[in-house]
Write a structure and sequence with these properties.
By secondary structure, the chain is mainly alpha-helical. The chain is globular, with a radius of gyration of 19 Å. A hairpin with a 3-residue loop joins β2 (66-69) and β3 (73-76). It is built from eleven helices and three strands; from the N terminus they run ααβααββααααααα. This is GntR family transcriptional regulator.
Length: 226
């Protein structure tokens, strides 16, 4: 029985918990694009009921992370680099807006919390704890979006994030990328602490674009032309 089922002995997981687990498996490349998601396997791995597993798959299909076809069932959805490029352009615009708004609206306590998370991420780079860095990075970006109070942008960005799963988490979160991300975060944070909304927005946009550039270079290395 898998770790999700073990973590919830005597208590079946909710559809949200099952969806979160499947999403984590996809992002860690344990489930890959095109792979079929067999209901009976998911029931065994998660300890969830058939009804909850199906609900979880419907949730993931709504995020475009899973495809559900009649008579074939569910499978992990792939994403082309052109789609990823478009998603990153949208993220750059949306998260840039939030960074500018955060610089204007955040309280001193919220700005201090942003600084603390950034410092924790820097510690992760030196300690080599990539999983922790990924979790903190999600917290950092979510805090910026949440303080602005724009739930629509936050929901959109979460959906835009998911199709990037086709590149390995372990490859994306490697030392050179982590150091680049930390440097980007410093620029964003400096602008926010200075209350400079236009600079914060521009720095966030550049940060997202740098992430896309890095993904593109990885994809080119993994799939050389010819």
């Amino acid at each position: 029985m898998d770790e999700l089922a073990k973590a919830l002995p005597g208590k079946g997981p909710t559809a949200v918990e099952i969806a979160d687990w499947i999403r984590s498996q996809i992002r860690a490349a344990r489930l890959v694009p095109g792979q079929r998601l067999i209901e009976v396997d998911l029931i065994r791995q998660t300890g969830g009921s058939r009804f909850k597993v199906r609900e979880a798959l419907q949730r993931l299909a709504a995020e475009d992370l899973v495809e559900i076809e009649e008579f074939r069932g569910a499978s992990v959805r792939g994403a082309s680099m052109e789609e990823v490029r478009q998603l990153y352009r949208a993220r750059a615009a949306l998260e840039g807006i939030c960074a500018g708004d955060f610089a204007r609206l955040a309280t001193p306590e919220e700005k201090q919390r942003l600084r603390e998370i950034a410092e924790e991420m820097e510690d992760c780079v030196e300690g080599g704890t990539r999983e922790r860095f990924g979790a903190l990075n999600a917290q950092w970006h979510t805090l910026i979006m949440r303080v602005t109070g724009n739930e629509v942008i936050e929901t959109l960005v979460k959906r835009l994030n998911t199709p990037v799963h086709h590149l390995l988490f372990e490859t994306f979160y490697r030392g050179d990328r982590l150091r680049e991300a930390v440097a980007d975060h410093r620029l964003i944070l400096d602008a926010i602490l200075a209350g400079d909304a236009p600079r914060a927005e521009a720095a966030m946009r550049q940060h997202i674009e740098n992430g896309h550039r890095f993904l593109s270079s990885l994809d080119a290395a993994m799939h050389p032309a010819g």
